[in-house]
């Protein structure tokens, strides 16, 4: 016996959390297991103008499980897009579905014909519990993964963090590059974000925070194409951690994006680039000092 909630859940934003929490509550009332059914990719993923996922699928699953729901099942959109919605629900019923939680505007199945009206009818006919959740909003606008992707792409990481209920973070493995940064006076770790098609934050410089070997470290992340030296065809992620000297090659690091400082620029000389980075560092140090709480704990206010 199980209670399920259905969606893509990319980002696991405030609206998703509400749906998942309600599924967990309902499962307790019905003494059943709780399951999130997560579409691997949203419908838009298959179109060329899709900006990319907020988080890799593996991380999405971790975030969903962190909410306290017992299991996550991933479903390929191709598997259900041509299925009659009644058939999909019947197959869940035959597997022990006792309750279902969805957003009020949720649609699924062939021609998106499955909706709350249809689900209510089926719930009455087949005796399962249906809970629909009113849309969760921020500043009167429906919270959605699409809105968050768009905010990240234009560098509004504050808004993204609000909608996600935690700072937007990126994560990836450190790989060896030319090591030019060290020679310029600021060693950088180059990050590879993996295979999933992910949204790129607006190119430029960000203040970031990571936890490395149980220690909080702050850094400057450059996202972009490095137009000044060694230009790249694809977006690169390079982080310069402040007051940090440990070896990072091949480690997987996660960083919270806290503040957007400036766009990436093409400088005429290397010297100008170095000056700009030194200035970024001064601004970042002042920002960090201002935002650290007074109790000596390395916590950023407002997050
Ligand atoms: C904080 C920071 C800011 C940066 N800003 C720029 C920039 O505005 N324009 C640019 O062309 N490169 C910028 N870079 C990228 C540097 O050009 C890059 O780190 C340098 O080329 C070394 O790269 P490599 O060691 O990976 O070869 C920035 C790097 C950092 C860490
Ligand atoms: N703001 C919200 N308030 C209430 N329910 C929501 C909200 N956003 C999504 N849901 C519900 O959460 C489940 C998962 O949503 P899903 O990830 O498919 O949509 P989304 O966040 O709107 O993404 P997209 O912007 O890509 O359409 C669905 O049942 C959906 O109806």
UniProtKB/TrEMBL annotation:
Pfam families: FAD_syn, Flavokinase
Enzyme class: transferase
Catalytic activity: riboflavin + ATP = FMN + ADP + H(+); FMN + ATP + H(+) = FAD + diphosphate
Gene Ontology biological process: FAD biosynthetic process; FMN biosynthetic process; riboflavin biosynthetic process
SMART domains, A to Z: Flavokinase
CDD domains noted in UniProt: FAD_synthetase_N
Transmembrane residue ranges: none
InterPro entries documented for this protein: FAD_synthase, Riboflavin_kinase, Riboflavin_kinase_bac, Riboflavin_kinase_bac/euk, Riboflavin_kinase_dom_sf, Rossmann-like_a/b/a_fold
Annotated ranges, domain Riboflavin kinase: 163-289
Highest rank taxon of the organism: Bacteria
Keywords: ATP-binding, FAD, Flavoprotein, FMN, Kinase, Multifunctional enzyme, Nucleotide-binding, Nucleotidyltransferase, Transferase
Leader sequence residues: none
Keyword ATP-binding: yes
Pathway it works in: Cofactor biosynthesis; FMN biosynthesis; FMN from riboflavin (ATP route): step 1/1; Cofactor biosynthesis; FAD biosynthesis; FAD from FMN: step 1/1
Gene3D superfamilies in the cross-refs: HUPs, Riboflavin kinase-like
SUPFAM superfamilies, alphabetized: Nucleotidylyl transferase, Riboflavin kinase-like
Family assignment from sequence similarity: Belongs to the ribF family.
Protein name: Riboflavin biosynthesis protein
């Amino acid at each position: 016996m199980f209670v399920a909630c259905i969606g893509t859940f990319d980002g696991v934003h405030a609206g998703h959390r509400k749906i998942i929490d309600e599924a967990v509550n309902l499962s307790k009332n019905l003494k059943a297991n709780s399951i999130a059914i997560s579409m691997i990719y949203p419908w838009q993923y298959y179109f060329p103008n899709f900006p990319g996922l907020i988080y890799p699928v593996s991380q999405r699953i971790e975030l969903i499980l962190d909410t306290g729901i017992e299991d996550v099942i991933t479903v390929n959109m191709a598997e259900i897009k041509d299925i009659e919605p009644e058939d999909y629900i019947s197959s869940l019923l035959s597997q022990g579905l006792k309750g279902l939680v969805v957003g009020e505007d949720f649609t699924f199945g062939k021609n998106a014909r499955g909706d709350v009206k249809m689900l209510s009818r089926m719930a009455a006919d087949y005796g399962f519990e249906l809970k629909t959740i009113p849309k969760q909003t921020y500043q009167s606008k429906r919270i959605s993964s699409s809105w968050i992707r768009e905010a990240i792409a234009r560098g509004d990481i504050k808004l993204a963090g609000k909608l996600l209920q935690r700072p937007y973070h990126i994560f990836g493995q450190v790989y060896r590059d030319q090591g030019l940064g060290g020679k310029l006076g600021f060693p950088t770790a180059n990050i590879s974000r993996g295979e999933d098609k992910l949204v790129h934050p607006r190119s430029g410089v960000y203040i970031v925070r990571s936890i490395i070997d149980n220690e909080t470290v702050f850094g400057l992340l450059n996202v972009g194409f490095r137009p000044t030296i060694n230009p790249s065809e694809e977006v690169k992620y390079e982080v310069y951690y402040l007051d940090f000297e440990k070896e990072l090659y091949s480690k997987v690091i996660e960083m919270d994006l806290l503040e957007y400082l400036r766009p990436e620029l093409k400088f005429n000389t290397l010297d100008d680039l170095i000056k700009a980075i030194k200035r970024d560092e001064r601004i970042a140090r002042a920002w960090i000092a201002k935002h650290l709480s007074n109790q000596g704990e390395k916590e950023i206010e407002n997050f």
